[in-house]
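Quick illustration, no need to memorize.
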Amino acid sequence: MSVLKNDRGESSAEFLNMADTIEVYTISQCSKIPRRFLHTLTNKIINLSIECHCNLKSANSIYPRNKHEAQMRRDLLQMAVNNIENMGTQIHILSRVTDKISFESLETWSTMLMTELKLIRGLMRKDAERYNKLKD
């Protein structure tokens, strides 16, 4: 059944799409950085984006049937949040040591990171309500 464009809401798996977008954007932005920053900052930023995407994919593959599985899912989501926050810090440092990233790119990057944080935290809130009554 089709849904009118005005009535469409956010997909429940939008956090995965955004993680994929962030990973691709991160790789494209980091490829513009001089090689001397490769082993210190850019690899760290790229690895954080990859790790975040992998954690979200892993969390999404868990369908909790008990509290332990729900906690495993929550732990993976929390690790993804930590990755995003650490990535923001590393991007900030990178922007201070090189001028190869434009202000518009930094703004786009930070908007994507903030959007992803909101999506993940919203998912964590929904999960807490949904899996509250699971057996031990």
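The first helix runs from residue 14 to 30.
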